[in-house]
Design goal:
Layout: E1 7-11, H1 15-27, E2 31-35, H2 38-47, E3 53-57, E4 59-60, E5 63-64, H3 65-74, E6 83-87, H4 92-100, E7 104-107, H5 112-122
Parallel strand pairs: 1-2, 1-3, 3-6, 6-7
Antiparallel strand pairs: 4-5
């Protein structure tokens, strides 16, 4: 895989998400790291400051993905990091806050096609469809 491939960090505590997404995203040309906790995600971002995008679950064993997103937005190095929230969450207040913080949203369960489209939108490779 080329060094110029975009690097995605997938943060989700469900093991099957990483098992399924890693090979799929790698097939699309991305470099992929997987973290199952917020602590692992912080370590991965420190180890890979050139991470290009984050796929983030909201409910993790060591904290809230939304709080983590707020923290990312306060730090110079990650303030503009593209983030796509992967969630089964249906609470409008939480989803509005994620959007306010600049994150895109994908509702679980999602299709691989829908996810790849949302990632392309997140990176600005395609325009979002008008709704």
């Amino acid at each position: 895989m080329a060094d110029s491939a975009r690097h995605l960090l997938v943060v989700d505590d469900e093991p099957h998400i990483g098992i399924v997404l890693r090979p799929y995203l790698e097939q699309l040309g991305y470099r992929v790291s997987v973290a199952r906790t917020l602590d692992e995600a912080r370590s991965a971002l420190r180890a890979n400051p050139g991470t290009d995008g984050l796929l983030l679950d909201l409910h993790l064993p060591d904290g809230s993905g939304l709080d983590f997103l707020r923290d990312l937005r306060k730090q110079h190095g990650t303030a503009r990091l593209p983030v796509l929230v992967l969630t089964a969450e249906g609470e409008d207040r939480i989803l509005r806050e994620a959007r306010r913080l600049g994150a895109g949203l994908v509702t679980k369960p999602f299709s691989p096609t829908k996810l790849s489209q949302r990632i392309a939108i997140m990176f600005g490779d395609v325009e979002p469809e008008a709704s």
